[in-house]
Structure to design on (181 residues):
Protein backbone atom coordinates (compact mmCIF):
# COMPACT_ATOMS: atom_id res chain seq x y z
CA UNK A 1 0.00 0.00 0.00
CA UNK A 2 1.44 3.38 -0.94
CA UNK A 3 0.62 5.80 1.83
CA UNK A 4 3.90 7.67 1.29
CA UNK A 5 2.30 11.13 0.85
CA UNK A 6 0.32 10.72 4.09
CA UNK A 7 3.30 9.17 5.87
CA UNK A 8 5.55 12.03 4.73
CA UNK A 9 3.00 14.66 5.78
CA UNK A 10 2.74 13.03 9.20
CA UNK A 11 6.53 12.95 9.58
CA UNK A 12 6.80 16.65 8.68
CA UNK A 13 3.83 18.00 10.65
CA UNK A 14 3.29 15.42 13.36
CA UNK A 15 4.29 15.19 16.96
CA UNK A 16 5.99 12.23 18.60
CA UNK A 17 3.82 10.35 21.05
CA UNK A 18 4.29 7.19 23.10
CA UNK A 19 1.38 4.85 23.83
CA UNK A 20 1.77 2.57 26.82
CA UNK A 21 0.99 -1.11 26.38
CA UNK A 22 -2.79 -1.48 26.41
CA UNK A 23 -3.44 2.23 25.82
CA UNK A 24 -6.16 2.99 23.32
CA UNK A 25 -5.55 5.18 20.29
CA UNK A 26 -9.32 5.00 19.92
CA UNK A 27 -11.93 3.00 21.78
CA UNK A 28 -14.77 1.36 19.89
CA UNK A 29 -17.76 3.71 19.88
CA UNK A 30 -15.62 6.87 20.02
CA UNK A 31 -14.50 9.15 17.23
CA UNK A 32 -10.87 8.54 16.26
CA UNK A 33 -9.02 11.85 16.30
CA UNK A 34 -5.53 10.78 15.22
CA UNK A 35 -3.60 9.60 12.21
CA UNK A 36 -0.25 8.03 13.10
CA UNK A 37 2.82 6.37 11.63
CA UNK A 38 4.20 3.60 13.86
CA UNK A 39 7.88 4.14 14.71
CA UNK A 40 8.27 1.23 17.15
CA UNK A 41 5.93 -1.32 18.69
CA UNK A 42 2.57 -2.19 17.16
CA UNK A 43 -1.18 -1.65 17.36
CA UNK A 44 -3.92 -4.24 17.24
CA UNK A 45 -7.42 -3.62 15.88
CA UNK A 46 -10.00 -5.10 18.25
CA UNK A 47 -13.75 -4.93 17.82
CA UNK A 48 -15.87 -6.29 20.66
CA UNK A 49 -17.69 -9.58 20.09
CA UNK A 50 -21.25 -10.25 21.24
CA UNK A 51 -19.85 -11.95 24.39
CA UNK A 52 -17.94 -8.71 25.19
CA UNK A 53 -14.54 -10.24 24.41
CA UNK A 54 -12.12 -8.40 22.14
CA UNK A 55 -11.33 -10.01 18.78
CA UNK A 56 -8.06 -9.17 17.05
CA UNK A 57 -8.79 -8.44 13.39
CA UNK A 58 -5.56 -6.78 12.30
CA UNK A 59 -2.26 -5.15 13.21
CA UNK A 60 -0.22 -2.05 12.33
CA UNK A 61 3.53 -2.43 12.58
CA UNK A 62 6.59 -0.20 12.17
CA UNK A 63 6.33 2.26 9.23
CA UNK A 64 2.65 1.48 8.75
CA UNK A 65 -0.14 4.02 9.16
CA UNK A 66 -2.81 3.70 11.81
CA UNK A 67 -6.20 5.36 12.11
CA UNK A 68 -9.88 4.62 11.76
CA UNK A 69 -9.90 5.91 8.22
CA UNK A 70 -13.28 4.65 7.10
CA UNK A 71 -15.65 5.54 9.92
CA UNK A 72 -13.98 8.41 11.77
CA UNK A 73 -12.20 10.12 8.88
CA UNK A 74 -14.49 9.46 5.95
CA UNK A 75 -17.85 9.65 7.68
CA UNK A 76 -17.17 11.45 10.97
CA UNK A 77 -18.73 8.53 12.86
CA UNK A 78 -17.56 6.59 15.92
CA UNK A 79 -15.09 3.80 15.30
CA UNK A 80 -16.35 0.23 14.96
CA UNK A 81 -13.11 -1.08 16.43
CA UNK A 82 -10.65 -0.22 19.18
CA UNK A 83 -7.05 0.46 18.20
CA UNK A 84 -4.86 -0.64 21.11
CA UNK A 85 -1.08 -0.50 21.62
CA UNK A 86 0.12 -4.10 21.89
CA UNK A 87 3.28 -2.94 23.65
CA UNK A 88 4.99 0.39 24.30
CA UNK A 89 4.44 2.01 20.89
CA UNK A 90 6.05 5.18 19.57
CA UNK A 91 4.35 7.07 16.78
CA UNK A 92 4.39 10.32 14.87
CA UNK A 93 0.81 11.51 14.93
CA UNK A 94 -1.32 14.33 13.63
CA UNK A 95 -4.95 15.20 14.21
CA UNK A 96 -7.28 13.85 11.53
CA UNK A 97 -8.36 17.46 10.93
CA UNK A 98 -4.89 18.15 9.47
CA UNK A 99 -5.22 15.12 7.20
CA UNK A 100 -8.41 16.69 5.88
CA UNK A 101 -6.30 19.69 4.81
CA UNK A 102 -4.39 17.38 2.47
CA UNK A 103 -7.74 16.51 0.94
CA UNK A 104 -8.44 20.18 0.28
CA UNK A 105 -4.91 20.94 -0.97
CA UNK A 106 -4.37 17.85 -3.13
CA UNK A 107 -7.86 17.36 -4.41
CA UNK A 108 -10.16 14.38 -4.34
CA UNK A 109 -8.06 12.24 -6.69
CA UNK A 110 -5.60 11.51 -3.90
CA UNK A 111 -8.25 10.31 -1.48
CA UNK A 112 -10.01 8.34 -4.17
CA UNK A 113 -6.67 6.58 -4.63
CA UNK A 114 -6.34 5.98 -0.87
CA UNK A 115 -9.91 4.68 -0.74
CA UNK A 116 -9.22 2.25 -3.57
CA UNK A 117 -6.12 0.95 -1.75
CA UNK A 118 -8.06 0.45 1.49
CA UNK A 119 -10.94 -1.24 -0.29
CA UNK A 120 -8.51 -3.58 -2.04
CA UNK A 121 -6.80 -4.44 1.26
CA UNK A 122 -10.11 -5.05 3.04
CA UNK A 123 -11.35 -7.25 0.21
CA UNK A 124 -8.12 -9.28 0.22
CA UNK A 125 -8.35 -9.81 3.99
CA UNK A 126 -11.97 -10.84 3.63
CA UNK A 127 -11.11 -13.36 0.92
CA UNK A 128 -8.08 -14.63 2.84
CA UNK A 129 -10.36 -15.72 5.69
CA UNK A 130 -12.19 -17.96 3.22
CA UNK A 131 -9.48 -19.17 0.87
CA UNK A 132 -6.42 -19.44 3.13
CA UNK A 133 -5.99 -21.76 6.05
CA UNK A 134 -5.00 -20.32 9.43
CA UNK A 135 -1.50 -21.74 8.79
CA UNK A 136 -1.24 -19.84 5.50
CA UNK A 137 -2.45 -16.63 7.15
CA UNK A 138 0.11 -17.09 9.94
CA UNK A 139 2.88 -17.57 7.37
CA UNK A 140 1.76 -14.39 5.60
CA UNK A 141 1.90 -12.49 8.90
CA UNK A 142 5.39 -13.88 9.56
CA UNK A 143 6.54 -12.75 6.11
CA UNK A 144 5.12 -9.28 6.70
CA UNK A 145 6.80 -8.72 10.07
CA UNK A 146 8.85 -11.63 11.42
CA UNK A 147 10.39 -9.77 14.38
CA UNK A 148 7.16 -8.27 15.65
CA UNK A 149 5.15 -11.51 15.53
CA UNK A 150 7.34 -12.92 18.30
CA UNK A 151 6.23 -10.06 20.56
CA UNK A 152 2.50 -10.59 20.07
CA UNK A 153 0.76 -12.58 22.83
CA UNK A 154 -0.38 -16.06 21.77
CA UNK A 155 -4.01 -15.28 22.56
CA UNK A 156 -3.93 -12.28 20.20
CA UNK A 157 -2.41 -14.36 17.40
CA UNK A 158 -4.97 -17.10 17.92
CA UNK A 159 -7.78 -14.54 17.87
CA UNK A 160 -6.43 -12.98 14.67
CA UNK A 161 -6.29 -16.42 13.01
CA UNK A 162 -9.71 -17.34 14.46
CA UNK A 163 -8.45 -20.51 16.10
CA UNK A 164 -8.09 -21.66 19.70
CA UNK A 165 -4.84 -21.08 21.55
CA UNK A 166 -4.19 -24.82 21.42
CA UNK A 167 -4.72 -24.90 17.63
CA UNK A 168 -2.42 -21.93 17.25
CA UNK A 169 0.36 -23.65 19.21
CA UNK A 170 0.13 -26.60 16.78
CA UNK A 171 0.21 -24.27 13.79
CA UNK A 172 3.25 -22.42 15.14
CA UNK A 173 5.04 -25.68 15.89
CA UNK A 174 4.42 -27.00 12.36
CA UNK A 175 5.55 -23.74 10.75
CA UNK A 176 8.73 -23.77 12.84
CA UNK A 177 9.41 -27.38 11.79
CA UNK A 178 8.87 -26.49 8.13
CA UNK A 179 11.25 -23.51 8.43
CA UNK A 180 14.00 -25.72 9.88
CA UNK A 181 13.86 -28.13 6.96
Amino acid sequence: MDFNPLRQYCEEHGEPYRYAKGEYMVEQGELCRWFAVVKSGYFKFCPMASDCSLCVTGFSFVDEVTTDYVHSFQFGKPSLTSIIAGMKTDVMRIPLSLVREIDVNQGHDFFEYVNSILLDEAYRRYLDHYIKTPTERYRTLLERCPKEVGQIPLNDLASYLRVSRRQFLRIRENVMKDNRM
Summary: The chain has a mean pLDDT of 88. Residues 132-181 form one domain.
